[in-house]
Each structure stands twice: as structure tokens, then as C-alpha cells.
Amino acid sequence: MERVFLRQWVFAGHVSRVRNVGDYFLFTIGNESIAVIRGKDGNVHALFNVCRHRGSRICLEAEGNKRTLVCPYHAWTYATEGKLLAAPAMADGFDSSQFGLHKCHVRVVEGLIFICLGDTPPANEDAFRDWEIFLKPHGLTQAKIGKSMIWQVSANWKLVVENFGECYHCGPTHPEYCSVMAHALPDTHKANKHVGEFADLTAAWEAKAKKLGNLTGRVPHDLNAVHTCVRIPIKEGSLTASRDGRPVAPLMGSFADYDGGYTAGRLYPANYFVACCDHAVIPRFTPLSPQCTEVEMIWLVRGDALERKDYDLKNLTWLWKITTDQDKKIVDDNQAGVNSLAYQPGPYSQTEQGLARYTRWYLDQMQ
CATH number, domain at 251? Predict the structure, then answer.
């Protein structure tokens, strides 16, 4: 927690949860409770949910709307920006300006709220620039949450994130995902046949997408970078990442038509996005304890889309719900095996070199 999560940017939630002044939600990471709130100044703030008097939690409900933040213990009262407004019966000379709520750094990137709990966040300007460029066509700033689901995975966060970051397991574990995403089988075993077929598909798709003025390719090209953004085809004939390849929601952002591609991004230590032309999925991987990780999948749709009219939740969530159900099972079993006296790490495969780079980055943080 000290070397990684308290020093890096972590995804906390989507901006639609704090559209109005006073809207807030609680974000829990490890032992910390953070109130993410829209202040009267119009900005998003992230405040440690800890009263400056005796340390009580202030916000006790998971989300809501508050004009002011009042501690239920002794009624110390704070503004939505964290400033202390009232502290009953304090002695003369008490300087309220010194007792505002402690704040986290906040960065909103195309509707995605990132916070850093440490004193000095990493710059990551290149990463945020690339995320903004690749996410902007999807219109996530104006999107809404169509559905969110939470899994409690009985494993260390690193096992959870390593699993999400590789497709070596896709073939054996995710038949549904492999039936939808053309990259999955090539990324499982690097067989020449599948790699060649995907290269041909990608070349044909890129020509089509570029004619439409849509982004393609990958940035940055430095494989050791802490972030990446990529836009590639889904599968031949598929318009979106769904069971049958057909749309599951209205087109989002600036897309005038389906081009059959999807956009994905990563930022160390545990931030990801996956976005099609008609919906996006934002995973959140948050450590709660050494062997408990909260995984949330957030499905975003166009802001004016209506459930049951414009989208069906079962169709919208099918791919990533079934994939995450499967991931929970295999990662729970992974942790159980790692806990054994017999466990010794094995070598990474040729398709897991991204994990080797990730591990080197992790060790650098621990040093």
C-alpha cells in the first residue's frame, strides 16, 4: 500500500456519480475511506473520511448528497471542499483554517476520476494525454452508468491484476471471450496460424477505420511504458463486443457508425478501460486486505439511453460478467495454491512478457 497504491493514481469512479453539487460516494482502499464529492466550486474533491477532531468517520452511507459534511460524533462541520466551517465549544484562539479535512489529489480524465492519496502524485502526463485522445471519441464524460457489479476476490491484488493483464489463460478459461474477441486465441499461444489471421484482419480493419477518420494502432510504442492505449478490431463481422456481434446500446460520443473496433488502455498499477462504439467497461481493482481484492465492473452507456428501451442489461453485461465470474474462480484458486508450502514461482510464457515488465516495475517501486 505504501510503495504502490498510496503513491500512484488509482481509478475511483465515474463522474456521473457526482454530477450535482454535494453528490458524493465513498471509495475504500485498504484501511482508507475517501469521500469523492462535487464541491460548491464545481470541482471534484477527494476527502479523507476522517474528522479532524477525534478521527471519527464522517460520511457513513456509501453515497448520497450533502450540503455540508457533519461529523456524527461531535458535530464538527465541513464544507464540500473540506474546509472546517464549525467546531462547537472550542477555546479562544482555535484556528479553524488549520483543521480542514485532509485531501487527495484528483484528476478527471474523460469522465474517469483518478485520485492519489500520497503527498506528491506521479505526473503521468503522457499517459493522461493518450487516454484523453483515445477515449474522447467515446464520449464518456457525457455517459452514464448502465450497470455496475462488484466481486470480492479472495486473492492478493497483484494476482488479480496479473490475471487481467494477460491472455495466456484465455483459451483454457474463457471460451465465451474467445468467441467474441479475435485477439484472444493469438494471445493465448501465439500459434502462427492465428497470429497471421489476426494480422490480416487488423490490416483490413485499419484501412476501413482510417477512412472513417477513427483512431487505430497503439501508443506508446515503448513496451516498458507504464501505460498504453490501443484500438484494434473485435472480430470479422462484429459491430460491438457482444454475444452475436450486434449493437447492445446506442452509439456513443462522436461515432457516426459502427466500425467494428474497440479501444483499450492501461495505466500502472491497476487502471484499465475497454470501450466499443456503443458502450464502455471500466474495471476497478482495489485492494482491501492482503488476500481480498474488490473488483468492480462499470458498464457505461450514452447519457440519454433508457434501460429496456435502448439497452438490455443482460445483453450489455453478458461478456464481461461471465468473464469476471470465471476470473474470480481461477484467481481464488491461484491464491489458494500460492498459499501452499509447495508453491514456487514458475517462468513466464512467451505470451506473458507484459507481466515480466510489470513485475520489474513493481520491484522498482518496492526498492
Answer: 3.90.380.10
